[in-house]
């Protein structure tokens, strides 16, 4: 209980409204000549995005019931779009339906932590749904910003109670995190100007994502309020992942895994 309360206090007042900062992660994106954005339920690639805290929710829901019919991508929409235009495969992007809550309320006293749990459950159900209705040729990509990165990480973490089936795990081909609050600075998949001696606000134990380590890229900048535990400072840095520098780098990493 003490740990939950401590994590909740650290998470209160989350905001990502500051202006983008510039960093050097230059990678050129090479668009394919016949890229296809698809509305098919089972295209060649499904890009699942989990937005960050307080980012605008989408509207409606598609047949699976776990993702919005429109919108809800937050800053990660640029990377998702770049994946669509960077491959000749058919690609559909979708955003997970979940609260992305910051502050506790009377109805949701745990606020952020309950929001993460709801996001993890919805994401897991969506992945299992795709695994059940789509041919094995349909591949899954995940992109998460801030709380969204934590949602994805918790689903892939080998120590959490909710575990994906073997078939669902095999479909996941690439994962990108931006400003993950559970960032561990000792992981092989870390990227950016982060301090190698500073973890995130709620650091994940090293190796908990080992089954997916080769397909993850986690972007974190030194001084970030969440992935570098600089809260309540570092808001401007935390907002900087919206820049094309980060989004393009993430898209290229993903495309390299497809």
In short:
The protein is of the alpha/beta class. It is built from seven helices and seven strands, in the order H-E-E-H-E-H-E-H-H-E-E-E-H-H. The longest helix is centred in the middle third of the chain and has 22 residues, at 112-133.
Keywords:
258 residues, 7 strands, Rossmann fold, 7-stranded parallel beta sheet, alpha/beta
Describe the structure.
By secondary structure, the chain is of the alpha/beta class. It has a single domain (2-10, 41-257), classed as 3-Layer(aba) Sandwich (Rossmann fold). Helices cover 29% and strands 13% of the residues. The chain has 7 helices and 7 strands, in the order αββαβαβααβββαα. A 7-stranded parallel sheet has the order 1-3-2-4-5-7-6, sandwiched between helices. The termini are far apart.
Outline type: globular
Poorly predicted regions: 1-34
Biggest β-sheet: strands ordered side by side in the sheet: 1-3-2-4-5-7-6
Overall CATH class: Alpha Beta
Specify the CATH architecture. 3-Layer(aba) Sandwich
Beta fraction: 5-15%
Rg is: 17 Å
Give the terminus-to-terminus CA distance: 42 Å
Mean pLDDT: 87
Largest sheet: 7 strands, parallel
| Number of discrete domains | 1
One letter per element, helices H and strands E, the order comes to: HEEHEHEHHEEEHH
- Going by helix content, strand content and strand pairing, the class is alpha/beta
CATH superfamily grouping? Alpha/Beta hydrolase fold, catalytic domain
Q: Helix fraction?
A: 25-40%
Using DSSP, what is the number of strands? 7
Number of helices: 7
- Which fold name corresponds to the CATH topology? Rossmann fold
């Amino acid at each position: 209980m003490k740990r939950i309360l401590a994590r909740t206090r650290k998470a209160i007042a989350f905001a990502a409204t500051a202006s983008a900062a510039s960093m050097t992660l230059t990678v050129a994106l090479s668009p394919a000549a016949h890229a296809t954005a698809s509305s098919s339920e089972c295209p060649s690639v499904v890009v699942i995005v989990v937005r960050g805290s307080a980012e605008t929710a989408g509207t409606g829901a598609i047949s699976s019931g776990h993702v919005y019919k429109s919108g809800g991508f937050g800053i990660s929409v640029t990377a998702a779009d770049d994946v669509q235009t960077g491959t000749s495969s058919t690609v559909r992007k979708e955003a997970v339906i979940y609260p992305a809550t910051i502050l506790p309320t009377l109805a949701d006293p745990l606020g952020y932590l309950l929001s993460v749990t709801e996001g993890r459950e919805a994401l897991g159900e969506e992945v299992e749904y795709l695994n059940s209705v789509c041919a094995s040729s349909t591949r899954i990509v995940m992109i998460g910003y801030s709380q969204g990165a934590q949602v994805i990480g918790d689903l892939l973490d080998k120590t959490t109670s909710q575990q994906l089936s073997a078939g669902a795990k095999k479909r996941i081909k690439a994962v990108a995190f931006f400003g993950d609050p559970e960032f561990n600075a000792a992981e092989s998949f870390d990227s950016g100007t982060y301090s190698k001696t500073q973890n995130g606000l709620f650091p994940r134990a090293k190796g908990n994502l080992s089954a997916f380590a080769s397909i993850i890229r986690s972007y974190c900048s030194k001084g970030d309020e969440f992935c570098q535990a600089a809260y309540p400072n570092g808001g401007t840095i935390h907002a900087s992942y919206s820049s094309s520098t980060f989004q393009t780098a993430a898209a290229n990493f993903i495309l390299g895994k497809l």
